[in-house]
């Protein structure tokens, strides 16, 4: 079918202004579509899915586009379904500390709104100004403060999801504790839009902290053993950091101004408790380390810069000769994060790339951002994947230009229980219309 | 060949006995099976075909494979403390009891994780690591005897989940025997976010219908530096409810925020752990704050202030650990305490948005009057998880049915304000029809479709969790 026909058919089910030929059908990050549609309601999302499901059309889903380089072996689907015009707060039960929001709402917009009520969503994803709530949840994005507040699976309490056949399925609810039936929310969180389109997301909120600070502790000699013994001692104390994130020297240089392995230790509590914990860190501070404490707005502005360090699929511009960017998420046993961060630092010389990396010593997740020539970046990714396997963890590529994604297995090896994942996909989306080939295994889905 | 010491001609019993090795690891005589005809939900009873006691994952897998091949229904059972009937062998199941798989496999304090077998008792985990200052957070009231395997199946909660979350927030990895006998490991080494759909999240709380968990990696936490507990007596339940709301709105996240009403207070004071609560108050709050010691005093001050503003009659802070422990023992044995004032009781488990507390409590009062049955309320007020306890006498003809109907109506009241029919006890047999209060047909089918992926023959714990299909009921559309 030629594009004009597809446009005509879609215009029959949506207002004309919400359908257009996609100008960037061949986007360097792929995951595009020949025709872009901009639904403004759940009913419209449902109609588009019904149309695609009945007519064998494939749909790529996009929110803010920050994660466009995350998975996907299809350069251009039939339809690019954008949720950019499906945003806003549906319900905010202030006293219950629960909010329901349309999935296309930019994350920061939601946080700004909630801040007026001294509340927040306890997630700290990258690029919050651009990333949508739906995208953050669908990709299971989390940041360093996951240590203190958990991840999307700990915050999301209800979803309305449009299934490929257009049916709206509610899961969970509006209460913070709920075990009625299967915990279907979990299925959609992190499913990369391969099972359904998130329509509304209900999230339990946390109070804004009364006070916050960030202790930046830099280990001048880069002695990993010294960091380890500090971390073990600190973790064995009764302090309650919201993050304990290790930055490699390259990243520390950019954010802290010190080229050294730096621990970012965040505290959020009543003011006296925060200061008490800062004092504790000073008390056990190893020799030959430098310490800086950022309080309140200073800490907040550190974090604002921090959330812009990873490649942004919506902002990236490409030209053939330039260096490329990649992002790798590595999961290992908590304290092995140190090995990953050190290895990432050393890889820069081995592979002739620039690497900025950070990882949480209390939760085991690392993010590694690589910049360099394509073949060097691929070589670095392969080494990281090998290292993760050696540590019995995993490494997945969260950002890479489309052309290169075809040359590397961005999701790593299929798990032994892949047949269950495939079984779930086939049950829910038998015609594989949603984000085809976007997720684990590549062929899944 | 017969299994050693087995006195039956039933070839299945003989085959199962061979798998578990000896006659001490299988029960099949009627008198032995009687103890397994129900769990903590005693309204329905049914005899299992047999009870087998595997010692390891391989034996579980072999039993499951045998049942799968021979189309024998089967289910897993832990300590049998479940309150919704999830372990009742409705179809004459082979019960796979996991109580002999009770090892603490490993503890890794540096990485904050422990690996346990499913039959390991919840409280034993905390007891095993408390000398180093660590604990396992989910604390259902039955924690002294319930198993972590059962906690995973039910996604168990507890008094302290307001701040620390329920079981699912603490599970890092599972080894699972699928209904066809295949063994899979999900979340290897307890590393978070394994690529792929979140099967850990799906399995936790699936009430034993998707697989049998044979090894569990859990997150363990460091003890808080300090904790303080407050007990507040209110003349009016509305004031207590409002105080709950005020505490949360003030930006505090207490570790626990519990409420008991007058009938509940009467029962706990008549039972094994009385603490001398006044009997003429309408409600009491038990509030615990924990965290960094220097921040606690400020929060306690704020809580006392809020209570006073809400007309509290008396409010006090526990002076020592003994006093705190007495208050908690009084609360945690609250369900059983009903035995002191009523021959039988039925516990319900609705959840409501916190702000609807006064409204729903009033409706529960009306339901109580309508059925002529007393209803006590003990609940996790902080997260809106109500436990109406319907008091009745099973000896009186028709009263059990009345109690069940009253319980169901309480759940309807919860659902009507946008709540849920169960916060931590599970659906089981008890609440499967009530699933229709909150889910429509399509949503229920979406769930059974997932079950079909794992459990296509539906031999594992069939007849639980989902309403009988095709029943014509008005469906609440979202």
UniProtKB/TrEMBL annotation, chain A:
Pfam families: FAD_binding_4. It comes from the Bacteria. GO terms for molecular function: FAD binding; oxidoreductase activity. Residues 29-208 form the FAD-binding PCMH-type domain. Keywords: FAD, Flavoprotein, Oxidoreductase. InterPro entries: FAD-bd_PCMH, FAD-bd_PCMH-like_sf, FAD-bd_PCMH_sub2, FAD-linked_Oxase-like_C, Oxid_FAD_bind_N. PANTHER family: D-LACTATE DEHYDROGENASE (PTHR11748), GLYCOLATE OXIDASE SUBUNIT GLCE (PTHR11748:SF103). This is Glycolate oxidase FAD binding subunit. It comes from Anoxybacteroides tepidamans.
From TrEMBL, chain B:
Its cofactor is FAD. It comes from the Bacteria. Transmembrane segments: none annotated. GO terms for molecular function: (S)-2-hydroxy-acid oxidase activity; FAD binding. Keywords: FAD, Flavoprotein, Oxidoreductase. PANTHER family: GLYCOLATE OXIDASE SUBUNIT GLCD. Residues 44-223 form the FAD-binding PCMH-type domain. Its EC number is 1.1.3.15. Pfam families: FAD-oxidase_C (PF02913), FAD_binding_4 (PF01565). This is Glycolate oxidase. InterPro entries: FAD-bd_oxidored_4_C, FAD-bd_PCMH, FAD-bd_PCMH-like_sf, FAD-bd_PCMH_sub1, FAD-bd_PCMH_sub2, FAD-linked_Oxase-like_C, FAD-linked_OxidoTrans_Type4, Oxid_FAD_bind_N.
